[in-house]
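Shape is hard to put into words, and the shape of a protein is harder than most. The fold becomes a row of whole numbers, each drawn from a learned catalogue of backbone shapes. The outcome of that step, for a single protein, is printed below.
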Amino acid sequence: MEKKHNSGLFWSVVGTVVIVDLFTKIAAANSLVPQHIPHEVFGNGVRLTLVHNPGAAFGLHLGEYSRWIFMALTAGALYILGRLYQATRANEPLRTLAIALVCGGAVGNLLDRVRSAAGVVDFIDVGIGDLRWPTFNVADMAVSIGAFLLAWVLWGEDHAASPVVTGAPEASTEV
């Protein structure tokens, strides 16, 4: 019987992302206090700055119920990703990797929302001078890389499934 999924790859990536994310957030929360004080790593370009984000990416905040709304949205996204994973065959390791990265990052940030009303622990702060990217974490990186990779893989699948149109239409042989 042929193996349908890359479960070893999937679960090892999800587990690794969740564990690395959790440990880096614990380390950041314990060593980068107080919040909002930058600690330079590579000059001003890369800093570690502890921030608790009660919203979502790029500081998106939906009021006092943001925590619950984003937990529900994450659960829905994980359900959809689970269905996408179930439709993934063993000969699609790149697609499996992409889904696993997004799932691992989503679980990492979901755990923060469940653990604390303060929000997700962010601490990676990059930019030049006052031009800063929004502070992020390992889970955010996994979601971003995984989403880009998944879009690329799905675009490739869609592109491969589309008929190639070249030149003039073929003449009909019907009489």
